[in-house]
Amino acid sequence: MCSMGFARSLGFALLPLAVCCIMANILLFFPGGEIQYVQQERLSRLIWFMMGIGGGGVLMFLPAGVFISLGSCTGCCWNESFMMCGSVMAALVGLAGSGYCFIISAMAMLEGPQCFTALGWSYPFANEGGRYLMEKDTWSKCLQPVSIVEWNVTLMSILLGLSGLEFIICVLQVINGLVTAVCRPCCYKQDYTLNA
């Protein structure tokens, strides 16, 4: 299969992942579908880093667009090599964006949500190193927003999974682009046979 066709398929795979990252990040701003917490600035501080909207979302449209625009193999060695080098640069941007989304989401998951407890608004799980994730009985510490721990854990897990897939796709294109740019398999079509 032509390396440019493979790159196009990777680009089409990135688009829904980016849209889903944006949607997951937006939902983090409205726990339980309520808007009062964003108005009162009672959300976890790391949510404001826009990891899903910026890193895993909007930034991923650049590599997706570049991969999709590659088209089919043209048979021109230098044109294909140049285009694939450009796609490698775009894939590096995608790696940065997906990596940012993954890291911030992981940090937010470890810190836990800001919520109203018996002691007021705080981060009750911040110093536990993520231990609360295995201790569901402690989630009841958070009284408001209702089910905020489940809300955050679910959406952060989605962001971690999506950004991980985006990262893998961009790594595949870096490999694909470098191999194509260096070896130019569409140019040198040779049949290799095994000698007995």
UniProtKB/TrEMBL annotation:
Pfam family of the protein (one): L6_membrane
Record's bilayer topology term: Multi-pass membrane protein
TM segment ranges: 12-31, 46-70, 82-110, 153-175
Chief place where the protein resides: membrane
GO cellular component: membrane
Coiled coil regions in record: none
Key words, A-Z: Membrane, Transmembrane, Transmembrane helix
Compartments, record wording: Membrane
Family statement: Belongs to the L6 tetraspanin family.
Protein name per UniProt: Transmembrane 4 L six family member 18
Source organism per UniProt: Salmo trutta (Brown trout)
